[in-house]
Amino acid sequence: MESVQDNNLNQPLVQSKRPVGEVVSSELEEALSDTSLSSSSRLRLATWIELKILFKLAAPAIIVYLLNNVISMSTQIFCGHLGNLELAASSLANNGIQLLAYGVMLGMGSAVETLCGQAYGAHKYDMLGIYMQRSTILLMATGIPLMFIYIFSKPILILLGESKSVASASALFVYGLIPQIFAYAANFPIQKFLQAQSIVNPSAYISGAALVVHLFLTWLVLYKFGWGLLGAALVLSFSWWIIVIAQFVYILTKCKKTWNGFSIRAFHGLWDFLKLSTASAVMLCLETWYFQILVLVAGNLPNPEIALDSLAICSTILSWVFMIAVGFNAAASVRVSNELGAGHPKSAAFAVVVVTVSSTIISIIFAILTMVLRHQISYAFTGGSAVADAVSDLAPVLAISLVLNGIQPVLSGVAVGCGWQAFVAYVNVGCYYVVGIPLGTVLGFTFNLGAKGIWSGMLGGTLMQTIILLWVTIRTDWNKEVEIAQSRLSRWEERKEEKLLNE
Question: Does residue 349 lie in a domain region?
Answer without folding.
Answer: yes
